[in-house]
């Protein structure tokens, strides 16, 4: 069974009555196996824990939603598969639900008082998300694939931390379970039960149906727009060696949350649009530039400066996008009941010297948007997935040159985490409604701990989304030594916009 069996870990015996279903093709990828999450919603309200648990249990009884309680197993061929119980009981539940209760305000708790909220103080760097693991996790919460395949635990572990004025709701799962958007699909189904609106729950797309399984099967990778710039052979080896050197020489990596105020993002976007309009007064080729484009541009420029990237170096920014809307025929009843992974990549190639000189961010923002428009088409997704199918361990392609600096950005704003409405479970408000921007039962902060096993996750930004005040929440991960420079640039941006 691999390394874990050497240390005495073996998979549980098969249960004869379990239904066995292979994971969908795009769920059982090496890097998805390598990443697990503790995804925490902070509520400045007291939620009814028993109501939360009962409504989730009820969801598991509706249609095929009970398949979420499947157990993960690794078969003899090294492939992951679901073992779906016929029914759930106390011995084999459909999910694990645990709680911790503190008879105090979160502000009186040594660790809880440091957890950022809606009005995150940015005069100092907030602790990394992982700092709060002892607060948001149960001691038995899983955090690597082995914790699932060598036990009989279901896919989801829900842990609720309850204070007198705050509730922290955490979902622990491996990335094979869900991407950022379908995570919201799951939460919305749970909320429909909580609100007494079972009629609003979409049909769960059963695990034995794989709507995206044909992607790239009959396409040619040669049709990919960046085919001539793919890193292969010796160039790919050189890139890998440079990456390994980076990981060895700069071993310490830190991830910190950042809140970009609404006024800062708005002002930056206005400058971008003004600059693009001046360059194209008739608006013939002026691309649409979103707030997300501007935020990613600011992150690229900030990181390029903080890392002191050589002027002649190529920067490759890998953006993640969801593809459901591109292939509606794969989801004839919509994708609201699809709990799985359905994302692929757009690649933006930049020159470090131009990034450093891009005062108004128009170069990075417009280049990033054009690359997204180029990649987010049916034909390009088919070509990219053809390449990925043929790659070692189905890894996504890398484009540019052997000296490129790899960056990655995932904008999860479309998941609308801050708009999730748990008001039906609220027992009492923890913070008076007139002293906060968010409504009753809406999250005020998201803490997302990402555990990565043997998979490099540096120079990454995760845009968690926009809160009720219009402020944007981000998670940066990069060299520890770069953080003083990053924080300085953040404070300059905030002070300049005051």
TrEMBL record:
Top-rank taxon, per record: Eukaryota
InterPro entries in the cross-refs: CAT-like_dom_sf
Name this protein carries in UniProt: LysR family regulatory protein
């Amino acid at each position: 069974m691999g390394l874990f069996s050497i240390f005495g870990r073996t998979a549980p015996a098969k249960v004869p009555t379990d239904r066995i279903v292979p994971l969908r093709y795009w769920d059982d990828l090496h890097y998805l196996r390598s990443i697990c999450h503790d995804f925490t919603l902070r509520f400045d309200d007291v939620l009814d824990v028993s109501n939360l648990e009962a409504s989730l249990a009820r969801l598991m009884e509706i249609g095929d939603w009970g398949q979420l309680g499947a157990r993960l197993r690794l078969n003899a061929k090294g492939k992951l598969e679901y073992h779906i119980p016929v029914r759930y009981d106390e011995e084999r539940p459909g999910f694990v639900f645990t709680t911790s209760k503190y008879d105090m305000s979160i502000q009186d708790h040594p660790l809880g008082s440091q957890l950022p909220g809606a009005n995150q103080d940015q005069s100092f760097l907030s602790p990394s998300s992982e700092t709060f693991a002892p607060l948001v996790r149960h001691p038995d919460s899983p955090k690597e694939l082995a914790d699932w395949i060598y036990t009989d635990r279901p896919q989801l572990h829900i842990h609720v931390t309850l204070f007198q004025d705050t509730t922290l709701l955490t979902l622990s799962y491996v990335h094979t379970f869900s991407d950022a958007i379908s995570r919201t699909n799951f939460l919305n189904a749970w909320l429909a039960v909580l609100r007494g609106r079972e009629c609003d729950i979409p049909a769960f797309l059963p695990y034995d149906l794989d709507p995206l399984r044909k992607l790239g099967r009959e396409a040619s990778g040669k049709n990919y727009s960046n085919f001539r710039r793919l890193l292969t052979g010796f160039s790919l080896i050189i890139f890998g060696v440079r990456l390994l050197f980076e990981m060895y020489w700069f071993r310490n990596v830190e991830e910190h949350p950042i809140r970009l105020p609404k006024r800062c993002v708005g002002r930056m976007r206005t400058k971008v649009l003004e600059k693009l309009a001046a360059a194209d007064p008739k608006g013939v080729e002026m691309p649409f530039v979103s707030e997300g484009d501007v935020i990613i541009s600011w992150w690229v420029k900030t990181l390029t400066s903080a890392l002191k990237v050589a002027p002649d170096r190529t920067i490759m920014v890998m953006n993640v996008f969801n593809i459901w809307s591109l292939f509606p025929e794969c989801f004839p009843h919509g994708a609201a009941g699809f709990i799985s992974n359905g994302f692929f990549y757009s690649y933006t190639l930049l020159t470090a010297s131009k990034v450093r000189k891009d005062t108004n961010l128009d170069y990075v923002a417009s280049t990033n948007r054009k690359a997204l428009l180029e990649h987010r088409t049916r034909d390009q997704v088919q070509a990219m997935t053809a390449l990925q199918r043929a790659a070692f361990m189905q890894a996504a392609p890398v484009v540019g040159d052997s000296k490129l600096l790899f960056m990655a950005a995932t904008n999860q704003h479309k998941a609308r985490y801050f708009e999730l409405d748990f008001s039906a479970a609220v027992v009492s408000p923890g913070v008076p409604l007139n002293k906060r921007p968010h409504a009753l039962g809406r999250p005020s902060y998201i803490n997302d701990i990402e555990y990565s096993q043997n998979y490099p996750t540096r120079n990454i930004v995760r845009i968690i989304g926009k809160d009720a005040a219009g402020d944007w929440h981000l998670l940066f991960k990069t060299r520890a030594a770069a953080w003083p420079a990053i924080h300085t640039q953040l404070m300059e941006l905030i002070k300049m916009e005051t």
